[in-house]
């Protein structure tokens, strides 16, 4: 039986037989970070830095960014926090990183593609993140949004390491990146699957359009097969692979993702206890069985 929200959870993400899956939070503000810490998150799996600047008319200075990030990192001293570099464009436009007009912004210059056109903006953000990490004592790693190839991942990881940040990862949210997960993990320290965009691009269904919302369903076997490739790549390379899209907040899907080889789940604070409790009441073999059923199209 599925546990209800608010069921018992001891605060350590693991199955009943001790298979560890970290339960992390998605945050975009200091209020989110406090709520996540209060909810018992083991860390932050996705800090959406662009949320700090949706209304900013110009690029914030390194010192402004440092202060904003440090305030969000503060509740997580000694804990892991994954900071995502600016995911500008499409559904999250930033005035200071606006591209030339594009017919299809979701397929245009967004996320890491902006950083490659404006590497000085990325380097300033990385300097601010490194300083905020030192201020807060959080165990900070950095990841890039909207990565399509291992070459892009390697470029980003090089930039992160040059900024003195130890751990560099990328999001898997483009189908090509899921298909290249092995090569991407070989040049990074971790990956995290963004199921919101991975579904959008897999089903060619705009995530903001209600008319195609039924296609953007993370239980769809085609999406789960892509996630399975990422889980297999994580096992083969011995590196972590998280999920930080909305799929991670579904207590039953959390078991499926665990069975597919995903090693951490990151979600809104409200989902943390019910996902933690859901994993705690089944064994890893049950998760693998749930994954096999879901891959076959059963719910
Ligand atoms: C995702 O695409 O699943 C994701 C976590 O990133 P965002 O929702 O911010 O695009
Ligand atoms: Mg995304």
UniProtKB/TrEMBL annotation:
UniProt EC number: 2.7.3.9
Major localisation: cytoplasm
Domain PEP-utilising enzyme C-terminal intervals: 14-281
UniProt record similarity statement: Belongs to the PEP-utilizing enzyme family.
Places the protein is found: Cytoplasm
Species annotation: Amycolatopsis viridis
Function: General (non sugar-specific) component of the phosphoenolpyruvate-dependent sugar phosphotransferase system (sugar PTS). This major carbohydrate active-transport system catalyzes the phosphorylation of incoming sugar substrates concomitantly with their translocation across the cell membrane. Enzyme I transfers the phosphoryl group from phosphoenolpyruvate (PEP) to the phosphoryl carrier protein (HPr).
Transit peptide listed as a keyword: no
Leading EC class: transferase
Catalytic activity: L-histidyl-[protein] + phosphoenolpyruvate = N(pros)-phospho-L-histidyl-[protein] + pyruvate
GO molecular function, a single term: phosphoenolpyruvate-protein phosphotransferase activity
Keywords: Cytoplasm, Kinase, Magnesium, Metal-binding, Phosphotransferase system, Sugar transport, Transferase, Transport
Required co-factors: Mg(2+)
Protein name per Swiss-Prot or TrEMBL: Phosphoenolpyruvate-protein phosphotransferase
């Amino acid at each position: 039986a599925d546990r209800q929200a608010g069921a018992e959870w001891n605060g350590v993400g693991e199955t009943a037989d001790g298979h560890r899956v970290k339960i992390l939070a998605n945050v975009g503000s200091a209020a989110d970070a406090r709520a996540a810490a209060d909810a018992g998150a083991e860390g932050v799996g996705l800090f959406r830095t662009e949320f700090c600047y949706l209304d900013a008319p110009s690029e914030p200075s390194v010192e402004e960014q440092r202060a904003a990030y440090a305030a969000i990192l503060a509740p997580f001293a000694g804990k892991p926090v994954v900071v995502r570099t600016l995911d500008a464009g499409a559904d999250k436009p930033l005035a200071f990183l606006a591209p030339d007009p594009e017919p299809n912004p979701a397929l245009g210059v967004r996320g890491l593609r902006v950083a490659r056109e404006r590497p000085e903006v990325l380097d300033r953000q990385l300097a601010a993140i490194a300083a905020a990490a030192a201020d807060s004592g959080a165990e900070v790693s950095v990841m890039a949004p909207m990565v399509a190839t291992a070459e892009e991942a390697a470029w980003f990881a090089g930039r992160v390491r040059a900024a003195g940040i130890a751990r560099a990862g990328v999001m898997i949210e483009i189908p090509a990146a899921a298909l290249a997960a092995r090569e991407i993990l070989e040049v990074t320290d971790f990956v995290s699957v963004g199921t919101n965009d991975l579904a959008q691009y897999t089903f060619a269904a705009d995530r903001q359009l209600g008319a195609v919302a039924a296609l953007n369903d993370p239980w769809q076997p085609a999406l789960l097969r892509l996630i399975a490739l990422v889980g297999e790549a994580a096992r083969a390379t011995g590196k972590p692979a998280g999920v930080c899209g909305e799929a991670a907040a579904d207590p039953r899907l959390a078991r499926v993702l665990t069975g597919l080889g995903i090693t951490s789940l990151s979600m809104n604070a409200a989902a943390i206890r019910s996902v933690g409790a859901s994993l705690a009441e089944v064994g890893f073999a049950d998760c693998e069985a749930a994954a096999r059923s879901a891959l076959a199209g059963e719910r």
